[in-house]
Amino acid sequence: MPGAGHLPAAGLRADAGIDAALRDLRWLLLSPPLLAPGRHPAAVQRFDADDAQAISAWLDALARQPAPLAAFLEQIGPAPLRLGRRAERLLEFFLRHGPTHRLVAANLQLRHAPDEQPGIDHTTRGEIDFLLEDRAGQGWHWELAVKFFLCTAAGPVARPADFVGPDRAETLPGKLDRLFGRQLALTPPPPWDGRDWRPAAYARGWMFYRHDQAVPACTALAPGHLHGWWVEHGRLAELPEGPWLGLPRSRWMAPARCGDAAALCTRAQIGAAIAAAWQAPPPPGVRRWPSAQLVARMAPAGDGGWEEVGRGFVVPDGWADGAR
């Protein structure tokens, strides 16, 4: 296994496997929302039962006949995409081809007017992710957030301030402020400015908690949000023997699958690989190093491959103290 910090970032490409793109798309559409409804300044997007059923049937049909998704991936090109950008493109594909919503506009760049910044009328002041309509004809402004935070709280209750990103460069309060206070507050430019667009946060992701404690309650988060664990490197012996699979950032969304048993590791091997990765230069895009490394515990699947049965971050010893 290569160092966990340097696992190949396959990106969203046709040659990266249509199955992986289908799994990520299914996860993005049908996984539970991350944020609690009624606890934030704008709506939290959640598909109702009828929409979820229609989306599930559409995904099943797409898996049988994936040509539209394959063509979409070909249009993207061979360059790898960041996880967030990949999620945006997959959600755009759904809005263009899915059964329940209709895309009106995507990635609208908002620029400063000349009177806002005299002489500088070309600067961007923001971007709207998606304008769309639902089946009832209601217009929506969606902002997408796919996030992964580790909770440092040690008791039964957690505050948003207890959640930090894997490289400690982002916090949950900071993201919520940007999402609700800035991104969803943007108004569409002409010709879309004459319509009522309801803002909603399309938030998906995983939260990770101390491996030896119960999941604490946090009123900002949806009760059924996806969650895993985190553990300090020096306490890896408290985890099962394995097998384990290191997950590059490009594969953090959907639960992992693996067809090659040779890619799996024992607990000792995954620990050694992570320690070696932390001694190397940081991967591109990582702002603070060493950062937490995501691993999945794997089990045999019915098709002869391996599937994820749990996931968690391995962090440097003392990481939580530095994250506060």
Which band does the percent of strand residues land in?
15-25%
Shape: globular
Average pLDDT figure: 90
Main sheet overview: 11 strands, mixed
- For the termini, the CA-CA separation is 32 Å
Name the structural class: alpha/beta
Order of helices and strands: HEHHHEEEEHEEEEHEEH
- How many structural units, i.e. domains? 1
Number of contiguous helices? 7
List low-pLDDT spans. 1-16
Radius of gyration: 20 Å
Overall strand count: 11
Helix content: 25-40%
What would you note in describing this structure?
- This protein has 324 residues and is α/β, with parallel strands linked by helices.
- It has one domain (4-323).
- The chain contains seven helices and eleven strands.
- Strands 1, 2, 3, 4, 5, 6, 7, 8, 9, 10 and 11 form an eleven-stranded mixed sheet that branches.
- The protein is globular, with a radius of gyration of 20 Å.
- It starts with 17 loop residues before the first helix and ends with a helix.
- This is DUF1853 family protein.
- InterPro entries: DUF1853.
How are the elements arranged and paired?
Layout: H1 18-30, E1 43-44, H2 49-64, H3 67-76, H4 83-97, E2 102-111, E3 124-133, E4 139-151, E5 163-164, H5 172-183, E6 198-210, E7 226-232, E8 244-246, E9 257-258, H6 267-279, E10 293-300, E11 306-315, H7 319-323
Parallel strand pairs: 1-6, 4-6, 6-7, 7-11
Antiparallel strand pairs: 2-3, 3-4, 4-5, 8-10, 9-11, 10-11
Helix pairs in contact: 1-2, 1-4
Supply database-style keywords.
324 residues, alpha/beta, 11 strands, 26% helix, disordered N terminus, DUF1853 family protein, DUF1853
